[in-house]
Amino acid sequence: MTILITGAAGIVGSGLRRELAADGQTLRLLDRQPIAQLAAHEDALVGDIADRDTLRRAMQGVRGVVHLAGCTTDADIEAQIDGNVRGAFNVFEAAREAGVERVVFASSHHVVGYYPRTRRIGTNVLLRPDSRYGLTKGFGEQVGAMFADKYGLRVLCIRIGYVDDKPVDRRRLSIWSSWRDLAQLVRIGLTHEDLRYAVVYGVSNNIRGFFDNDTAFKLGYRPHDDAEKYAAAVLAEVPAEDPSLVGTHAMGGWGANNEYVGPVERIYEW
């Protein structure tokens, strides 16, 4: 089976390449930047998800797509629309045209970033995006839902928290994912027989977690890791957060802080 990874040169793409290397499938890597040091099971294309011809070539012979490409910062709305609105639609449309069965969409916890950390939420809550980035990632989730219903794709949206070797601050003790746990969710999206459309949180089994990941567990997710093993070091080394900042109270952290106007208490009003 050939799997296309868009945005494969980025941090998440590089990490998933390592995790998926032993799965016995071909990885086709698409990015705007050239990718060096390809493994035997990898091939690469240089191109942009804005270019539909590039996407058509990339989709040939593909059984599943892991869509990571797009705008990953809280840039201006035009950059968000190019990367996360038009770009996401282009990827799903190209997959449909090519007869690709499955798309795993890298969403973000920033789609619910203004929920207070005192809450514990599942994936069935109303969206509360904390940024232009979170707003347009929410659009991508809805594109996936429409393509699942209208065209029969099988779609898993993963609201990634923070994926890296270890959490680096107090908030990320709640939203961290290990590489192997994120890869497990990706594999579920690529292989689960009964999946039509679902949204899950891309987090490990963190005891301090904000998210109820019941939907993922019902799909067979069994996370191996918990950020708590790093908690003592983080709490000792990282300064306490400033309570006057809304991001100290909100799940989205930096996304919630950016351009926020008014009292912190407002996010507790609904």
Protein described:
- The chain has 270 residues and is of the alpha/beta class.
- It has one domain (2-268): Rossmann fold (3-Layer(aba) Sandwich), CATH 3.40.50.720.
- Helix content is 36%, strand content 16%.
- It has 10 helices and 9 strands.
- A 7-stranded parallel beta sheet has the order 3-2-1-4-5-6-9, with helices on both faces. A two-stranded parallel ribbon has the order 7-8.
- α1 (11-20) links the parallel β1 and β2.
- α2 crosses α3 (77-98).
- The radius of gyration is 18 Å and the shape is globular.
- 45% of the residues are buried.
- The model has no long low-confidence stretch (mean pLDDT 96).
Overview features:
single chain, 270 residues, alpha/beta, Rossmann fold, 7-stranded parallel sheet, two-stranded parallel ribbon, 10 helices, NAD, NAD(P)-bd_dom_sf, NAD-dependent epimerase/dehydratase family protein, Epimerase_deHydtase
How are the secondary structure elements laid out?
Elements: E1 2-6, H1 11-20, E2 26-31, E3 42-46, H2 52-59, E4 64-67, H3 77-98, E5 102-108, H4 132-151, E6 154-160, E7 162-163, H5 172-175, E8 176-177, H6 179-191, E9 197-202, H7 214-218, H8 231-237, H9 246-249, H10 254-257
Parallel strand pairs: 1-2, 1-4, 2-3, 4-5, 5-6, 6-9, 7-8
Helix pairs in contact: 1-6, 2-3, 3-4
